[in-house]
Amino acid sequence: xxxxxxxxxxxxxxxxxxxxxxxxxxxxxxxxxxxxxxxxxxxxxxxxxxxxxxxxxxxxxxxxxxxxxxxxxxxxxxxxxxxxxxxxxxxxxxxxxxxxxxxxxxxxxxxxxxxxxxxxxxxxxxxxxxxxxxxxxxxxxxxxxxxxxxxxxxxxxxxxxxxxxxxxxxxxxxxxxxxxxxxxxxxxxxxxxxxxxxxxxxxxxxxxxxxxxxxxxxxxxxxxxxxxxxxxxxxxxxxxxxxxxxxxxxxxxxxxxxxxxxxxxxxxxxxxxxxxxxxxxxxxxxxxxxxxxxxxxxxxxxxxxxxxxxxxxxxxxxxxxxxxxxxxxxxxxxxxxxxxxxxxxxxxx
Length: 349
Prior knowledge:
Blueprint: E1 2-6, E2 10-11, E3 27-31, E4 33-36, E5 40-41, E6 48-49, E7 58-64, E8 67-69, E9 71-73, E10 76-78, E11 82-83, E12 90-91, E13 94-99, H1 101-108, E14 130-132, E15 136-137, E16 150-153, E17 158-164, E18 183-185, E19 189-190, E20 196-197, E21 202-208, E22 213-215, E23 226-229, E24 231-233, E25 236-245, E26 248-251, E27 266-278, E28 282-285, E29 293-297, E30 300-305, E31 313-316, E32 321-324, E33 327-331, E34 336-339, E35 344-346
């Protein structure tokens, strides 16, 4: 899709295909421009996708380099969400959401994880204004109508979400519609679905080159202190690994997606292996009078690559303090990061 208007939603799959006859061929949703007023789904509506004989092969790719998802309502914003999987149903395979031209190109080139499968070789992504008015999910919208949290996995393989703001304008706080190169995600980023788990084999979220720091300024000794960022996400939730590379974001907080009665606002929640920041990234938790918390995270670390020793910072408005992340040396690019000791973390994109 490179232009035009869709009043409803876009699906990469089909409608209500039973489990006995799954859609086994991989599919792609490519959006370089235009507007989708509903949601974008990588897979089917109440269907079964993927090849049961190859349960980790990628069943779908959502490739976004431009366009608008969602609508502006008079009384706020109606969420326009992006899902790696479908509406309900089951994916017997893996799914990937690639946001930004560089995310699509880097994973598709020779040596990339999707070298032999991404449609980018036939269609070249184009940078244009990219405005996602809702959230990004590695999984599906629900499990077919239920609102209760389902601990089963509706994606049996991997869930990948890769957001890359390279060559986009993410430095202006308020996007200018007259521009043709801004990127803005207004909701949160989730490794799961709206009420179910996703990525039984692994759920990774990578955000790269998105947002810049806003420092205190003035003549004070702490004028360079991080106090805000030019991009805001509500939350980062339910991933195995979350990596922020040269990314500065405010995390305003959102309820625990797995708890319908959750009242606490979480900036980062339920990360099974760890949150890793590198290359002068910054996280701002909440704002004055509106705290947002980090909880249920195995570890939080700052990693510096090769000779790059730039410091990454955390600003916690609830505690009223800014502090550097504990920094650890590592080797390689963030796509394949490992500490110098035995523990190694791989980011397959």
